[in-house]
What does this fold into?
Amino acid sequence: MLVKNSLKSLGWGLLVLLGGCVIYLWVSYSYKSTGLLSSANTVEIDNGVVQFIEHGLENKQSGHSVVVLHGTPGGYDQFNHYGRLLAARGHHIVLPSRAGYLGTDTVNSSLQRQVSTLAKLMDFLAIEEAVIVGISGGGPVALQFVTDYPQRSEGLVMIAAISDPSINPLDPAQPTPSLSFSQNLLFYLLSFFPGLVAPAGPALSAYQSDNVEIAGTEMFQSLSFYSLRKAGYQNDWQQLLQQQSNVQTLREGLSAITLPTLLIHGEQDVNVPIEHSDSVVELISGARLISVPEATHLFLITEINFIVDRIEEFVNSL
It folds into this structure.
């Protein structure tokens, strides 16, 4: 009887603990969801709201301005720590949420309208020119911007970025993908324990760095809260489909770029294969590619220190 009562008490204890964990996750999720919309700046451009944050405002006159375009899905929060680190090194960093992500409307959702909106955001912030950084799914917008606004672009950095829609092309017959509830929950849970997905090998030691822990937390958080990112995720899919039907024009535009260009890519990246960067190197005269051996797409987290160092070197060389 004593054993039975003990097991019953243990069962109730575990149930209460589980319930407490669920309540904590729900409250923290709701709190962070609200914070994502309220803790960034917004401005109305072309009848639509654009959300952004800045780091290093004190460096605006003395340093370079750098615009960082996040991946798919994402938002201004995805590479926030990149912004903090680069600002600490003397630069002014702008991180906008792209069309449909978090607090940015989808009114100006085509690539051409997105870069026009970005140029007007730069006007609003009194930025004459900036280094444009496209990361992962932010690559197409970065390339479109430097193509349409070369006079506003000081340099181009592409990090594990999509550039050639003919590589692993999307199937237009397939429905636009979305993240399931379980995927959204998994990414949110991983934001508390980013080290769980650290790849084996040399990059594992990088998790001893506070920078990498913060980058991992922000990355996985930026893949959750899907209801706030769904419109942007679906729009990115549609824009890539449109680019696939116009690859030759895209390549002609890239071959006309004369800006200093740096690409950083993991050699084992299966999400965005390194062939994307190889294509840019072939088309943009003088473009330089740094390939990272054994690195997957997760090197955006595990190698943040290396990547920020390379960005800083590139920006300081301009």
Observations:
- The longest helix spans residues 2-38.
- The chain is about 45% helix and 15% strand.
